[in-house]
Specification:
heterodimer; A: 202 residues; alpha/beta; 7 helices; globular; B: 342 residues; 9-stranded mixed beta sheet; 11 helices; disordered C terminus
């Protein structure tokens, strides 16, 4: 039997591991409950931020395939990103089987764009600061999934500005130790059976 | 002048670099280690700098405002005037801006002067003003690089930004401009003391965002200056950058050429696919394409999409494509994905 691992599951776990998410009472998100929802594979209700992200990515894709950006308030920013990714493969599904901690795992990811040895991920975000994606599990996971890729670029936009953040393979740590820690944590907390039930791969 | 891409060497590229660090750590000294620097003291703080350090500059200017700096560098002037400025700056190879934060401030003040909409009543920049500032900063760098043909080194002070218990170091600059300046830089390093040693880090880490390209990565030790020791850290770094750049561009050009070749062959073959017979006839040839970079994945994704659109399915038992079973129309296994999943 093999089990699926995605970067978003690892991301939920790492987020829940942060010390007391309610410490400054500025967040309404319950990271622990979000992780349990992810472990149970419950669908996440759509919110405005998620919808904006989907809409923006769709706009970039349409512009990359020839649609005019004129008349759309996000058009200029989306066109700048479309210029970077045009000609690539959009929504590329990647899988890789690995052995970690005595378990057979199926790493699974959907790349926004794959083009000429580079992976692109399009982010729509109201706030951006350089280094925002440094701790993300996404580029380490995708480097593991696509061994031929040598760089991963986040293309972030708030609808008007565009910022890029590139990570190279040779300066990115492997995702495997993070997966090992996650599996140990599942065992220690008694949540391994739930993970194995819900995340069994076909 | 149009030349063949393979003839480009990038061996004498003009470099855009950002240096950040706490006050007093030696940012200016490091900046002046670039080749033949023109020191632009926007902060008007030259008197606080050690005379020996100041003498490392090949020239110095202390513009009172951005209008004066534009005139010094020939920004927005006529061709004739620009030629005069170029002659005047011929002895310099690098433009050092100290500090970038102050440059953005005087740039913003200039912007508000030329267009009232760029400012707000409280004196700060409006959203439009920040948009203009980002573009003007880009224009400024482009002018230094493409018109004046100089390296550019911009010094920024560091501020601490708290993220929970973590302290992150950021460059000190107004509003969103602190994010956009990174976009156009080739190199960006944070200076820190490690024990008694001055260092500069070019790789992202938990505490700061940095930028390294062309083999310039990780943390570099900055040699202590002493009598007889030349202040040439950046001069050597730029030479290393360009040497690696030339090597990498050669390798990248070879990879890109192989990639483009694979993609061209693949696209031609996929273009010929029109029905079951042609799929099975072309597939063996498709599998023989010599791949580079991610061409194999990209072409297989396109191939699978085409077969799926034609309602074809790869039968592993028969080892060839057949009409897809109706129930499995949307789940036709793609040979490449299937292989990876195992």
């Amino acid at each position: 039997m093999r089990y699926t691992i995605t970067h978003s599951l690892l991301s939920s776990w790492l987020h829940s591991m942060k010390d007391n998410p309610y410490e400054d009472a500025t967040t309404e998100r319950d990271a622990g409950e979000e992780l349990m929802q992810a472990l149970r594979r419950e669908p996440i209700p759509m919110n405005e931020a998620m919808q904006n992200g989907i809409d923006f990515e769709n706009l970039v894709t349409r512009i990359a395939y020839g649609m005019s950006p004129e008349g759309d308030s996000w058009g200029e920013a989306a066109a700048a990103i479309a210029d970077r990714v045009r000609g690539g493969i959009f929504q590329y599904k990647a899988y890789k089987e690995v052995q970690v901690g005595g378990m057979t795992l199926l790493l699974n990811g959907r790349l926004d764009v794959l083009k000429a040895g580079e992976i692109f991920d399009i982010k729509f975000s109201k706030n951006y600061e350089p280094g925002k994606f440094f701790g993300s599990t996404q580029h380490p996971m995708y480097f593991e999934l696509i061994p031929e890729a040598n760089s991963f670029t986040y293309l972030a936009s708030n609808g008007s500005g565009v910022w890029s953040e590139t990570y190279r393979r040779d300066e990115t740590q492997s995702i495997i130790p993070t997966i090992e820690s996650f599996l140990s944590w599942l065992s220690d907390t008694g949540l391994m059976p739930l993970y194995q039930e819900k995340w069994a791969a076909k | 002048m149009i030349v063949k891409p393979e003839s480009l060497t990038f061996a004498d590229k003009k470099i855009r670099m950002l240096i950040a660090g706490y006050p007093g750590i030696g940012k200016t000294t490091l900046a002046l280690s670039a080749p033949k620097p023109l020191y632009i003291d926007v902060d008007l703080s030259a008197e606080r700098i050690n005379r020996d350090v100041l003498n490392m500059a090949a020239g110095i200017t202390q513009p009172r405002d951005y209008k004066e700096l534009r005139a010094d560098l020939g920004i927005g002037c006529t061709e004739l005037e620009l030629q005069a400025v170029k002659n005047n700056l011929a002895d310099f190879e690098t433009i050092v801006i100290d500090t970038g934060g102050k440059l953005l401030t005087i740039m913003g003040q200039y912007g508000k002067g030329i267009e009232p909409k760029y400012g707000q009543r409280d004196g700060s920049l409006s959203l439009k003003g920040y948009g203009w500032l980002g573009k003007e900063f880009q224009r400024f760098l482009d002018h230094c690089i493409y018109q004046l043909d100089k390296h550019i080194v911009i010094v920024f002070h560091t501020i601490e930004d708290k993220d929970g218990d973590d302290v992150k170091l950021r460059i000190k600059a107004e509003g969103s401009s602190k994010n956009s300046v990174w976009e156009v830089m080739d190199l960006g390093g944070f200076m820190e003391m490690r024990g008694n040693t001055r260092t500069i880090g070019f790789s992202n880490c938990e505490r700061y965002f940095a930028k390294g390209t062309r083999g310039i990565h990780g943390i570099r030790q900055i040699p202590e200056l002493a009598p007889g020791v030349p202040n040439d850290f950046l001069t050597k770094l730029f030479a290393e950058y360009n040497a690696v750049s030339a090597q990498e561009s050669e390798q990248a050009a070879a990879d890109k050429a192989a990639y483009e070749n694979a993609m061209q062959i693949g696209h031609e073959l996929i273009g010929k696919v029109s029905d079951l017979e042609s799929v099975n006839a072309i597939f063996p040839e498709f599998l023989k394409i010599p791949h580079a970079l991610t061409s194999k994945r990209e072409l297989h994704a396109e191939w699978n999409a085409k077969c799926k659109a034609l309602g074809l399915f790869y039968d592993k038992v028969l080892g060839k494509y057949t009409p897809a079973p109706a129930a499995k129309d949307n789940a036709a296994p793609a040979p490449e994905e299937e292989k990876e999943a195992k």
